[in-house]
Known about the structure:
Rossmann fold, five-stranded parallel sheet, Elongation Factor Tu (Ef-tu), domain 3, globular, 17 strands
Amino acid sequence: MQKHRIVVGLSGGVDSAVTAHLLKQQGHEVIGIFMKNWEDDDDSEFCSSNIDFVDAAAVADVIGIEIEHVNFAADYKDRVFAEFLREYQAGRTPNPDILCNAEIKFKAFLDHAMRLGAEKIATGHYARVRLNPASGLHELLKGLDPAKDQSYFLHRVNQAQLSKTLFPVGELHKTEVRRIADEIGLPNAKKKDSTGICFIGERPFREFLNRYIAKAPGPIKNDKGRVLGEHVGLSFYTLGQRQGLGIGGVKARGAELKAIQAQGQRGAGAHEPWFVARKDMAHNTLWVVQGHDHPWLLSSQLSAQDCSWVAGSAPATGAMAAKTRYRQADAPCALVHASASDCVLHFQAPQWAVTPGQSAVLYQGEVCLGGGVIASSDVSTT
Length: 382
């Protein structure tokens, strides 16, 4: 096998640690880079980058590779965080992890690695790359561990980036990764997987947004137009949200309850939980409904913009599958329109809480085709 100089993004976690170990074991020249992407309140209890760097350095020491600490905080603030705030202020719910992969890990980090003379980069993502001999194109595949597959977050990578990228742990299940880490004595073998995004960490999300987005209170209304309470600002809520609405004690009553009972709506009884169903930015109104299966929460069609296709061009229309959020099963759908910049999907079964700002990602079997940012969906008006 051909040996390469490979730069590995060492995050301090077990996945990137095992990635570096596997490549070193294969005889490659491996260099570790720890990416510092956030500087604000870096010493707080919520931001773990200092701890993560200590873990990454300890891993590099055990494996026997060099590690470099690189600061991408300015790039991150300009390319990821600024867009994150713009989307929330517009009432959408962005996915900054997708933007971070596109703008930092596979641009700023990749560029830095190439300046170091690297031929390839590698990360601890659960995904795979395959060169299709028939088309000559690199394909992005799901990771073999279905519970850990991260191709959804990687769908914006392009051919040039994929051709220089390795995902060694994508061939493994998480249990095997932890077993390898334990076997070779990695200090982070049992380290808990990180949750959330780096600049928020484990802190309460609303508390974090409060520092950057002004509160703009307004009415909370149900699907009959009845005012149930007051929201703190539409930016602080997302479609499908159930917790933190402050209306837990409000129940359907009188004529509303009779109407619900008459319609026989499953899951819309008087004591059913409330869910965020719509955000009316023009009137600063938060609309909520009772019952998980309320028609306002279900969509059979969506349109997406700012599309990015792994092959470099839009796929042919036809039957495929899609995810409208990370942790969901592939949903059968038809791609009814696709261009370089936008697409329209029609689903066989209605999808729950399709959320503008999130990404719709398309698949044909195990191959991730790319996707776009959800702009709108055809929620019921009944």
